[in-house]
Amino acid sequence: MAELQQLRVQEVVDSMLKSLERENIWKMQGLMFRCSTSCCEDSQTSMQQVHQCIKALPCASGSSPGFAWCTMHCNDKVKDSIDAGSKELQVKQQLDGCVTKCVDDHTHYIPTMTKKMKEALLSTGK
Prior knowledge:
Blueprint: H1 2-36, H2 47-56, H3 67-83, H4 88-107, H5 109-124
GO cellular component, one term: cytoplasm
InterPro entries: DUF842_euk (IPR008560)
Family: Belongs to the FAM136 family.
């Protein structure tokens, strides 16, 4: 019986997360991508200038441009290192360091997100 109740709770939580994703997260990601396209219009702009432009946009201010963007940036750095002839171990270390920084930069958002989700859930129960 307890397993059934646990399954019921898990289904409700999964449904809530899917709803948040569809109704909020996708919209936020869409806004971020639409906003950042202006940084990519000039074909003479370097990759570094594009990344700086995206970070400086009002749509990204006060928030992270996203973990996916961060890992994409790491892949770009690795590609540049490979193109420059760096050794495999050096490239791997650079990728590991970059991905670790992405994780470090984004995990600090989790407590705030959790607090906001709890507040929202509590306010719906009133």
